[in-house]
């Protein structure tokens, strides 16, 4: 019996980027039958992957790099696919000393886009993940993103009714809509709206609920985990979201989605992927202020806050859901 080819995919973080690697996982497993496929990520992101049926095993980095390398050496991988390409993953590749394929971050192209408005990379990040895999005969099947979650999460909300999920979180304040923008839209809608995000967004959600005349608003920020939030998104009829990982959950479920962009822009390669019902609303500045939204060239708290809430409400009403 022929030995299976052992492949290790490496992507340490973050949630959204890991979800964006899901087409690579699926295509490797389905296009090469005699493969044993492993994945390495940070321990805190393990829940995103453990239900993925295309993975045979997962390994986790939890501040145990030396021990991790020792354990991975024992796996005797034939191929390492580095979809992170940072110093840690480079050290790992050198330690494993096997054939490897590396994702090109195209940082120079991003620099030119951010600083000069010159866009030399039209590809989505997912499509760039596939570029180094050509020699492995791995092709993108264009079936979009995967996220695997149970349908039996016990959240304190009736998901059988029509409602909107709204992710008000973001990795930086510069990427978040303001309470004023959100309250305007909520006041115009006679629908239940569930707010999702991290614990740091809980106060923002409470402020919106206090200010809004809509009495069908629910704060789940910091009260449920990522998979439970994804469950609420999956069961909703429309997703509104900042540029954050929940956007890619909406793409995986082909859910009608409106995303909001200011310091970051869809052209950086992290826009909704292969979701025909996705729409983006951008601030008026035509190019991104920074790579990840950490800084804004126009406003101290982010140019996404210049998006007129009337535009958001109009787009919501245009979408049939």
Describe the fold and architecture.
There is one protein chain. The protein is of the alpha/beta class. The chain folds into 2 domains: 5-136, Rossmann fold; 164-318, Rossmann fold (3-Layer(aba) Sandwich). Helix content is 32%, strand content 17%. The chain has 12 helices and 11 strands. It has helices spanning 15-20, 22-31, 46-49, 65-73, 87-96, 107-116, 125-130, 179-188, 202-211, 226-235, 246-252, 309-318, and strands spanning 5-10, 35-42, 57-61, 79-82, 99-102, 164-167, 193-196, 217-219, 238-242, 257-261, 278-282. Strands 8-7-6-9-10-11 form a 6-stranded parallel β-sheet, with helices on both faces. β9 (238-242), α11 (246-252) and β10 form a beta-alpha-beta unit. It is globular. The N and C termini lie far apart (52 Å). The mean pLDDT is 96.
Largest sheet: 6 strands, parallel
Q: Which architecture name of the largest domain does CATH use? A: 3-Layer(aba) Sandwich
Oligomer: single chain
And the CATH topology of the largest domain?
A: Rossmann fold
**In the CATH hierarchy, what is the superfamily of the largest domain?**
Glycogen Phosphorylase B
| Span between termini | 52 Å
